[in-house]
Amino acid sequence: MSLSFLVPLTSRYAPLSKLHFGHGRGAARSVNCILSRRPAITILAIFLHPIFRPQSLSFSSTAIARGGSSRSVAPENLIVLGIETSCDDTAAAVVTGNGKILSQIVSSQADLLSRYGGVAPKMAEEAHSLVIDQVVQQALDNSSLTGEDLSAVAVTIGPGLSLCLRVGVTKARSIAGRFNLPFIGVHHMEAHTLVARLVERDLQFPFLALLISGGHNLLILARDVGHYVQLGTTIDDAIGEAYDKTARWLGLDISKGGGPALEELAHEGDSNSVKFKIPMRQYKDCNFSYAGLKTQVRLAIESRHVCVDNNPILSASSHERKSRADIAASFQRVAVLHLEERCQRAIEWAKEMEPSIKCLVVSGGVASNQYVRSRLNYVVERNGISLVCPPPNLCTDNGVMVAWTGIEHFILGRFDPPPPAFDPEDYMCDLRPRWPLGEEYLHGKSEARSLKRARMHPSLTSIIQSSIKQQI
Ligand code: KG4
Ligand code: ZN
């Protein structure tokens, strides 16, 4: 039974809501998705029936009309190209609907990062532009596929640096336009979350997720694909930023990333030797802060006269190396204790909201840290739930998570029609540099929470939920 009809879209955020919804139930049911191409689209093809549960994953097949001819694709046979350029990694991957990774390419800018001490947007954009064609081509070649074989193209559209996001989005649009493929704009942090469902195919909603990266610290309750409640976020810096700065100040070789370098040095140190204060203990919420810990580290380095400016760790005396390792280990202990305390509270909150919760997903670059994993394992064990941590190469930024998130939304019928073969010169990419994943849990709002809400996009969850409500 086809459930298709067209409805006009009145949202103020037209490009945000260019979501196509398909909902279905029963293994034999198929849904016809008609991809209509219109200039300045404000019309949606909506496939919806109120009796069907909105985010059900129950399609038996998705019929995609491409270039006039319609062909039916079972979800497991979908093949999606995912592209990621939101920060300092240029990544692409090809993934199938049953979770098989056909290829995965990542080109890192870690060397730029170590030279300039942070991501400089203009330089990062240039670095992405330099390698994007090669990275995407390599991903296609390694999968032995061409654009003709793809079912859709997914790309990170936010949050992240606009200049960098634009490189990936432009590339994705050009491929989708050229091969007449549906286009899926992906939320970077949702991609970090949902990749856990590729790794752990039995992982069911609802679950709790801790997302820890260079730019984000998030605790979320994941209710469904596109439906998240934000229990906590950082009020200043993310943990990855604190790892990176500490590694730099300690004179470590950060050409392969500050986090891994610091984790390695910490093995040599005494984690109780420097008494750092655990952040935000006076706030009984799930928010994070790492700016103060960074300052404490800086002061410890200065007071111990660990002069690192012209003294990389390789040329340090053994005494000095030990002193730096002590700082590294002590920093790591407290940085992770802060995560442990917030996770403990978040589990309690989440169990009140969703007593059926069984898993804590930990993802994002910092989740590749073994110490972080082992400490959080104690926390989940104490609470009778389990830890799901993707392998390290799927925790750091990658194209697989974007392709997979594209697949999760595509199966639900949420995608844009193929873009034109060539965008007009004045085409404005739909980029969302500041884009929350979900609405804040009211109980979780902190007095300490900074109100940096200017130029913030409506959250992914609010866009999807209001689109669903509009149609019912
Ligand atoms: O998710 P990600 O690759 O990029 C962002 O979205 O930010 O995370 C990058 C962050 C960096 O700060 C990096 O130093 C940190 O993850 N990271 C680590 C480790 N591996 C990567 N931090 C601690 N220990 C690690 N082993
Ligand atoms: Zn990331």
Automatic annotation (TrEMBL):
GO molecular function (one): metal ion binding
GO BP field: tRNA threonylcarbamoyladenosine modification
Domain Gcp-like as annotated: residue spans: 100-404
The UniProt record lists the keyword Mitochondrion: yes
Details of cofactor binding: Binds 1 divalent metal cation per subunit.
Stated family: Belongs to the KAE1 / TsaD family.
Function: Required for the formation of a threonylcarbamoyl group on adenosine at position 37 (t(6)A37) in mitochondrial tRNAs that read codons beginning with adenine. Probably involved in the transfer of the threonylcarbamoyl moiety of threonylcarbamoyl-AMP (TC-AMP) to the N6 group of A37. Involved in mitochondrial genome maintenance.
This protein's name: Glycoprotease 1
Protein species of origin: Platanthera zijinensis
